[in-house]
Amino acid sequence: MNPTSPSSAASDTWRIGDAELHSRFLLGTAGYPSPEVLQRAIEASGSQVLTLGLKRTLAVPGGGDNGFVQIIRDTARQCGSHLLPNTAGCRSAREAITLAHMARELLDTHWIKLEVVGDEQTLQPDPFELVDAARQLVRDGFEVLPYCTDDLVSAQRLVDAGCRILMPWAAPIGSGLGLLNPWALRTLRARLPGLTLIVDAGLGAPSHAAAAMELGMDAVLLNSAVSQSGDPVGMASAFRHAVEGGRLGHRSGLMATSDVAIATTPVSGQPFVLL
Predict the structure, then answer these.
(1) What CATH number corresponds to the domain at position 236?
(2) Does a structural domain hold residue 272?
């Protein structure tokens, strides 16, 4: 992407499917102290896309309805946001596909954040089950946003399966460690220049989000760093500004780095004269 004037930042839109978006900050909805705090955090974040984990929210003892899904639907409607259901907690392609179809019927959206966990300790995605599920869901008419690692070959397989958006992790879910492998994310950006890349999972501080956007990522998604903070509303605002600042920095053109000092004030030639 060529650097562009900061004055054009207001027109810096992007898309998920047919939806044109202005905010590049996607927000999770789990773990907030109350629905009121959640709504205020969404408003402070400016987010236009909210994720919702159906497997966890529908897992009510006795099979009853805890009302959480309706709360999120109402909150999204009030904030003018899109819902992005996810298949968090699924362990196989078959399970994820079934849940995706349930989400489409329940929430009336063909968007799905596809998660298929392969390791219980790290919650690392299973690359094989993930590709199988993605291929089938694309055939079924879904806009599939797979949560994946930062491995280039796995990413290419998901693209081959029909995915137009990828969500590579920065670090394991909920770890707050930030960008563990900036080189891998930079490589994904360079090798998949036309693909939408959303960094998902492991971001713990606004500076992590800014760093991801400075690498040329299209957006970031996070949950715990906001919902588990002492002030979710204030933290949502902090991440919003970090995402915007990182994006603007990338578009403006970051200075080249150097292993040696480079004087910023010339010691020869004609100085500037202020009249």
Answers:
(1) 3.20.20.70
(2) no
Give 169-224 pLDDT, tens digit per residue.
Answer: 999 999 999 999 999 999 999 999 999 999 999 999 999 999 999 999 999 999 99
Paired sense of beta strands 14-16 and 19-21, if any: antiparallel
pTM score? 0.89
Whether residue 235 lies inside any domain: the answer is yes
Candidate list 24, 55, 113, 251, residue with the active-site label: 113
From the number of C-beta atoms within 10 Å of its C-beta (0-12, 13-18, 19+), residue 36 rates as exposed
| 143 in Cβ contact with 16 (< 8 Å) | yes
Does the annotation count 55 as an active-site position?
A: no
d(C-alpha 209, C-alpha 129), whole Å: 28
The number of folded domains in the chain is: 1
Q: Structural domain of residue 35, as residue ranges?
A: 24-251
Q: Which pLDDT does position 220 carry in this prediction?
A: 98
